[in-house]
Specification:
Order of helices and strands: HHHEEHEHEHEHEEHEHEHEEH
Number of strands: 11
Keywords: DNA-binding, Transcription, Transcription regulation
Number of helices: 11
GO molecular function: DNA-binding transcription factor activity; transcription cis-regulatory region binding
Oligomer: single chain
Family: Belongs to the LysR transcriptional regulatory family.
InterPro entries: LysR_HTH_N, LysR_subst-bd, WH-like_DNA-bd_sf, WH_DNA-bd_sf
Shape: elongated
Distance between the termini: 49 Å
CATH superfamily of the largest domain: Periplasmic binding protein-like II
Radius of gyration: 24 Å
Helix content: 40-55%
CATH class of the largest domain: Alpha Beta
Protein name: LysR family transcriptional regulator
Structural class: alpha/beta
Length: about 300
């Protein structure tokens, strides 16, 4: 039996459903059923009672589950020992929201690639909703997102959420006079607001903060790229909200000017999420460790 077969067996002890386990491992339900049948043939007796589409583990299955969990954990522990000798190998699939993927992650991935050249990190960027969907479907091992993720929400979705760091949002314009003093949001409602698309964590944070005050922004245009929005704010005199890190250069060069909004809290958390049912490899744990160290360094800078 392969380690992956044991992982599937352990997962089905939890889900009691070949269909759910197939989704967790990005395979098909017939493949899961074949693996379970092969294990039963190897053991020489049934390990599950079949009730419709559900599989109820026998006492022998539960006993084997405890033993095989130690085997799987020992396997990954051995990889960790190899990793400590500088021999991390393999592939990590991650997804991040646009701000993290464009402004935080590149430097982190560069340093990680220098340290672990035999590891391939496959990284894509989407909005928050799409990132969560890919993670829950098992298509990625880790999701790095902006937005507010409560422990209750994470638990209900079968996820584990860890706070990586903080991010500050700023409203910005190319009008230095407009930005010369703090403004109430009411003073800006007649401007041409360009926001990120529906599902964006940045958009949700901003609109929710205003919604708490009973305010609503008249959205002139929606785009799914920060740089495209930035260009229109610079060249057309529109107004938008950005992650501060995304416009640091433009603020320093006095191309864009941050507008302080009175009584609006625009600080948000950045999160790392993974599925609670997945078995984290030593490689993934090492990458998470590097992420945390990098965000601590960013917070101190």
């Amino acid at each position: 039996m392969r380690v992956k077969d044991l992982e599937i067996f352990l997962d089905i002890l939890k889900t009691k459903s070949p269909t759910l386990t197939a989704e967790n491992f990005k395979t098909t339900q017939p493949n899961v059923s074949i693996i379970i049948k092969n294990i039963e043939n190897t053991i020489g007796s049934p390990l599950f009672e079949r009730l419709g589409k559900r599989l109820l583990p026998t006492s022998k299955a539960l006993l084997l589950g405890g033993l095989w969990l130690e085997v799987v954990e020992g396997y990954y522990k051995s990889l960790e020992v190899i990793g400590e000798e500088g021999m991390f190998l393999g592939e990590i699939r991650i997804v991040s929201t646009h701000t993290i993927g464009e402004y935080f992650l590149p430097q982190i991935l560069y340093e990680f690639a220098k340290e672990y050249p035999k590891v391939k990190v496959i990284s894509h960027s989407h909005n928050t909703g799409e990132c969560l969907n890919l993670l829950k479907k098992g298509e990625v091992e880790l999701a790095l997102i902006e937005g507010e993720i409560t422990k209750e929400y994470a638990k209900s979705e079968g996820l584990i959420a860890e706070v990586l760091g903080k991010d500050e949002l700023v409203v910005a314009s190319n009008d230095f006079i407009l930005a010369s003093k703090p403004r109430y949001i009411d003073e800006l409602l007649d401007k041409k607001w360009i926001l990120r698309e529906y599902g964006s964590g940045l958009r949700d944070k901003f609109l929710n903060a205003l919604g708490d005050m009973g305010k609503e922004i008249p959205i002139f245009l929606e785009l799914d790229r920060t740089n495209a929005i930035k260009d229109l704010v610079i060249t057309k005199g529109a107004i938008s909200v950005f992650s501060k890190i995304a416009i640091t250069k433009e603020i320093q060069e006095k191309i864009l000017f941050p507008i302080e909004i009175i009584n609006v809290n625009l600080e948000r958390n950045l999160y790392s999420l993974k599925r609670s049912a997945q078995l984290s490899s030593a490689l993934l744990l090492k990458f998470e460790e590097c992420l945390i160290e990098a965000f601590i360094a960013i917070a101190k800078s």
